[in-house]
Description:
- By secondary structure, chain A is mainly alpha-helical.
- Chain A has helices spanning 3-14, 22-47, 54-66, 72-101, 116-119, 121-140, 158-166, 169-196, 205-231.
- Chain A has one domain (3-231): 3 helical TM bundles of succinate and fumarate reductases (Up-down Bundle), CATH 1.20.1300.
- The termini of chain B are far apart.
- In chain B, 33% of the residues lie in helices and 13% in strands.
- Chain B has eight helices and seven strands.
- The interface between A and B is large, with 54 and 58 residues.
- Iron/sulfur cluster (SF4) binds next to α4 and α5 of chain B.
Amino acid sequence: MSVAEQSIAGAEARGHGFLASSVGRKIVMAASGIVLFGFVTVHMIGNTQAYMGAKSLNAYAEFLHGMLHGGGIWIFRAVLLTATGLHVWSATTLTLDNLAARPVGYRAQQSVASTWASRTMRWSGVILAVFIVFHLLHLTTGQLHPAFKAPQGHEYFAYDNFVSGFKVPAVAAFYIVAQLCLGLHMWHGVWSFTQTLGLSHPRYEGLRRNFATGLTLLVVGVNISYPVAVITGFIH
Amino acid sequence: MSKHLNLTLHVWRQKNTSCDGKFVEYPAENVSPDMSFLEMLDVVNEGLIRKGEDPITFDHDCREGICGTCSMVINGRPHGPKERTTTCQLHMRSFQDGESITLEPWRAEAFPVLRDLMVDRTAFDRIIAAGGFISVPTGSPQDANALPIPKENAELAMDAAACIGCGACVAACPNASAMLFVSAKINHLGQLPQGQPERYSRVRDMIAQMDAEEFGTCTNHGECEIACPKGIKMENIARMNRDFLKASLTYRPAVVGGGAG
Ligand code: HEM
Ligand code: SF4
Ligand code: FES
């Protein structure tokens, strides 16, 4: 068979599906990553109300649950669950493809351009997945929260749960570690999705990096301040 | 004349694709710093032949940095420590007396080792055959100035066309991804008017073939860009992704049997 015939056979065998293709799945990963990092940014901003006292934060919880007669929060949950599912699916299949693409490694490979964040994406991602499950069982449903106060009617105890939750040092420590992983994941991810979605131009090169760094420092910095504020007694 | 070097080579030796390979140590003595890296290997090989041993097999052809054949990973970096340099353009003055040098083949599922440092890169040929061409009516050549081409596009196309298909990008990528190579070919043709008719089928076909060859996927580490001896930029990958997205969103399946007439 000639080289040309071999390539056409290969392309046909693989099919032309967007989701089957590596670049298609990269685009799914980037798009779902944007939804997730948009969520973490808004979540971080919403929680700053913890600094305004119990009333503010509890009212915010009530507002979230009351949107569109209680339907709003389920729309958000559905979007986030879908985005998380697509993200984990694309990340897993792409990672497996990448491992298979280099079955024999180098004895002496040097990393010149890659960063610690870019090389640990799969690990920061896995820790984030564990963290997300823990976080939901801790502050949303309360199974892993020893002093959890469930909502009563239209009264929410987000503030009390938040303060009593972070009083446990191991829990506060896990939140902080997870936020550091979020930082690594976001710092590479935010830059990476601009590249994946084709947003590259020499004029905006510096902007892309600085945007990733600035957003990461902001989100991670503010998020880490919550457990620290409780532990130091600043919020009580 | 500058001082000669004595070096220790740790070379990957493998009889053929199906055999297991291993590292073997060879001394390289009295090496002139003015030799190219391949000349140093030639001298080592002459010594091996004189002793009745098998010489180290490595790929090479032009020995002037234009054919892309001289693939080997030198101390963990494709084509060695110098940027924008192929192995044949690397000189022994880039090494220190007494240094140990590890030599490995390109490592990728898509590039099986044929022997020692030589790998099979026909996967690249099949990617080109899948779409890395333009279809032109042949005949007497058109006047060179008949097609206006903006200077910026001409330059971007020329920069992408500098790719010599060496595969260093695949070798350097922790995922053995061929995205830099494929994107160079896509942009070399896609920036020019002659490349427009097949622009959107090309990007889908070449990426489908790239996947079928089992190259890895890009995670934007950036190792390829540093390893590339021709300075191909990752910006090409971003531009290829943009074309791929547009091509996938606007793809119409071919009409079987022609349109209603
Ligand atoms: C649920 C657990 C998660 C897992 C298992 C996971 C895993 C991964 C993996 C393996 C990658 C590819 C790494 C690479 O390209 O080098 C990735 C990329 C990315 N992740 Fe996650 N991740 C998770 C959560 C998140 C969260 C919470 C966010 C948002 C803050 C996020 C945003 C991103 C972005 C923006 C990218 C870059 C996409 C691209 O390269 O274009 N991920 N993720
Ligand atoms: S992009 Fe650079 S490293 Fe990759 S094949 Fe072309 S010349 Fe070689
Ligand atoms: S032998 Fe041709 S580029 Fe090195």
